[in-house]
Amino acid sequence: MIPAVNLVTDAAIASFLAVVPVFVILTVRSARSGRNVGFRPLLAFFGVVLWLVAVYGSFIEPYRLEIRTYPVTVGSGDAVLRVAVVSDVHLGLHKGTGWAEKVVGRVNSVRPDLVLLAGDLVSVPSGMESFGPFGELESRYGTYVVLGNWDYRVGAVDVRHCIESRNAEVLTNETVMVGEPGREIALIGLDDWIYGDPDWGAALVGVPDGAVTVAVGHEPDIVSAAEVNGIDLVISGHTHGGQVRLPLIGAVPHLPIGLPQDFDRGLFDYGQTKLFISPGVGESGTRIRFLQPPEISVLEIRY
User: Fold this and answer.
1) Whole-model pTM?
2) SS3 letters across 223-252
3) Which residue among 11, 53, 176, 301 is least packed, with the fewest CB closer than 10 Å?
């Protein structure tokens, strides 16, 4: 079942797109007939501008899938790990199997060493039916996943089973070593910050002394504890980069994080820990993206 908020916002967008052209046509006819139309032409002008923004934000930008590369240095060595990060797919709301196929195809085109899916893969149970293409992801060291708050709302057990039946491994407060022998990094997967139980004590068991550490958790809020635990890099999602942005303002909606609001997307320094926040490739709530297109983030981690 699609959440009520999505039905309401979709209905509001549809109504707006239908009403504005009618208003403009009636205003033009009234003006041509010599009637006093007052401020209606000005309202019609702004209505057209907003109509174009709504069309672009609802049906064009959400499908402009971009790939952006970020160099990240967490050590003094010359080893490089190329990591493709995908978060916030939100399958089942506004996007389905076709979008999943497009995302997977673009990820495979960059030939990553490692793929990380940073949570919120589905938003409704039917979204799991569209997850199949993610089983076709290709990389040297495999695909690792952490669950997000929406995955828990759908059902963590069912979502985990769906993911792991398609050649990916869900990490929940545990560590795997990835990379070339002798140059491995410790990849730490944390449980969801909101509905799960992130346990650093369990997650760090078996991490070798002196190893480069990369922690993945859906919400960027885990960075506070990560910094205390000496983690080199945190990878997260959740914010969608605001999903709707404006020049000079940045993210328009209030971001659902406990960190300062300028932790919206991209790479940050948080004390001695680096934090990366993926803008994601899907939408929740309204279907609109504006000045924040979906993004596959490629981290070139030098360590």
Assistant:
1) 0.92
2) HHHHHHCCCCEEEECCCHHHCEEECCCEEC
3) 11
